[in-house]
Amino acid sequence: MILVVSYDEDHTADVVRRLEAAGREVVRVDLADLPVRGEITIDYPADGRPEYALATPAGRTRLDECRVAWWRRIRPFTVDRALGAARDQGFAASETSHALHGLFHSLGCTWVNPPALDAMAHHKPYQWEMARQAGLVLPRTLVTNRPEKARRFIEEVGVGRTVFKAFIAGVDAWRETRLVRAEELENLESVRYAPVIFQEFVPGADLRVTVIGDRVFAAEIDASATSYPVDMRMVVDETPVRPVALPPPLTAGLLRLMRRLGLVYGAIDLRRRPDGQYVFFEVNPAGQWLFVEERTDMPISAEVAALLSRRDARDPGSERLPPRTLAGRAG
């Protein structure tokens, strides 16, 4: 059985269809169904094996024999509205988290990606340090909530040559990458409310590199001639996308980064400067790939399904290695 932890989205649906067409049993769980619309069972009997089970609107599933799990995309738990006090709602969510994550970590299956390592890898400062250790080039970067520190950085790098960005740009609180203009300097005092990422602007073509195990799919997304060259996400429909080959040393560095982070899957964003130097921005452990696949015909969805199938096909009697080792031997 293959467990898919995600909500209903195109990337998951396409891979699930491929797995089911190949005869695999797939169970999908949306964390937002729990605990209000679902049930969690962890039953240790007096003798015999424990029972791990989840019941959601999609049905009840015993996870004891789960062989591989895809930690794709998660949403917050939903607690019963009858718990009116914020303190009680927080307690219910916390208890659900402890029970569910304990259940997941107890499963003797291979995770893509291991949830704890996936959570760590979502933190950009940690990514940057692992990337530096892997030999990748980073842009000049400052994270601060000190307005005077931010002002000094911008003065050194230059107005119009410095970008600022958020750590997380969610759908409900979208924040595109922006160039610092003269008018932004008047608002620098607001930096004190929360840390902000400031970076030296790197001109050139973006690259989205999707890593699946030891397979690397690289696409160039050149937004330099579009209406918003600062952030290709804003103009992806205007931007030419084409498959490209990466220099072998760069590919090796990206795979080293993935091993250091303990990730099996990741969508990496780079930029190639006009002088040919590649600069690392970030890796998204749950990054999108369909917009690349649809424009380049690279078989990314098929490779994700193949990876999950290969891991599901392991000999059930074989030794189960710890998640970090499995991720390190990805593919």
UniProtKB/TrEMBL annotation:
Residues 311-331 are annotated as: Disordered. GO terms for molecular function: ATP binding; metal ion binding; ribosomal S6-glutamic acid ligase activity. Residues 311-322 have a biased composition (Basic and acidic residues). InterPro entries: ATP-grasp, ATP-grasp_RimK-type, MvdD-like_ATPgrasp. Residues 128-309 form the ATP-grasp domain. PANTHER family: BETA-CITRYLGLUTAMATE SYNTHASE B-RELATED (PTHR21621:SF0), RIBOSOMAL PROTEIN S6 MODIFICATION PROTEIN (PTHR21621). This is ATP-grasp domain-containing protein. The lineage of its organism: Bacteria, Bacillati, Actinomycetota, Actinomycetes, Kitasatosporales.
